[in-house]
Write a structure and sequence with these properties.
The protein folds into two domains: 8-119, Alpha Horseshoe (Serine Threonine Protein Phosphatase 5, Tetratricopeptide repeat), CATH 1.25.40.10; 121-255, Serine Threonine Protein Phosphatase 5, Tetratricopeptide repeat, CATH 1.25.40. The protein contains 14 helices and no strands. It has 262 residues and is mostly helical.
Length: 262
Amino acid sequence: MQQATPSRRQLGIEAKGLAQQGEQLRLAGDAAGAVALFTRALALVPEFVWALAHRGAAYRQSGKAFYQQALTDFEKAVALQPDYVWAIAFRARMYELFRDYERALVDFDRAIAMDDTIIGFWRSERALLLCFNRRTREAAFLCEEALRLDPDDHFAAYVRAVIALRYEANRQTNEWVNRALDLLQPLAANDGPNQGIALYRLGGLAALRGRPDHGMTLLARALPLEKEAIEFARHDPAWFDLHADPQFQVLVTDRFGDLTIG
């Protein structure tokens, strides 16, 4: 007896179950397992936008060799659902990883225009993208706006100090640096969710202030605590002067053996 062909509804239910399992694996750090399950879900329902976008996120977690596949998935997801803000925000991050900063900024602005909660500390994140696009004056103003709204915003304080040290070097430079240090040093001294990023940022400021060895020591301490520190350091303006340093290159070579800086 010939087996009945599954209905569209049945296929959708099965695909949803596979995708949910894939997301659990992705969040647990098993990117390869997640990709396999998302791919099975998409074989059942090729236009399953949620599975496409989340497979893109899993590819992004898999290392540089999979970045193009990640970008392709996000592009397909946005083409199918142009208002899918989560996919747009992730695509902005992929453009940033490819050093396509103009497109990254366009997608970033599109995402926050739709939902300004989709990206944490969006003013500081946008300020960095503006720096990458050589729009440092706008970046500085945005950091200052963020600090007016939240004087304890250590991300904005860090970016503003980096701009001051690298691009301005005027009478206010020490003021911005000291403000960042005052916010970051207590976080770095205590165990907590912000210790890793605080160490990373203190390292960047040390490197910019002519103490590269101390900066790299702090970066090495940050790496086990902050999973994005390697990617940050590869194109953060604070570390530009160390790109040719062999010790720095060792620190920012990821677990897949990839070194892409600048």
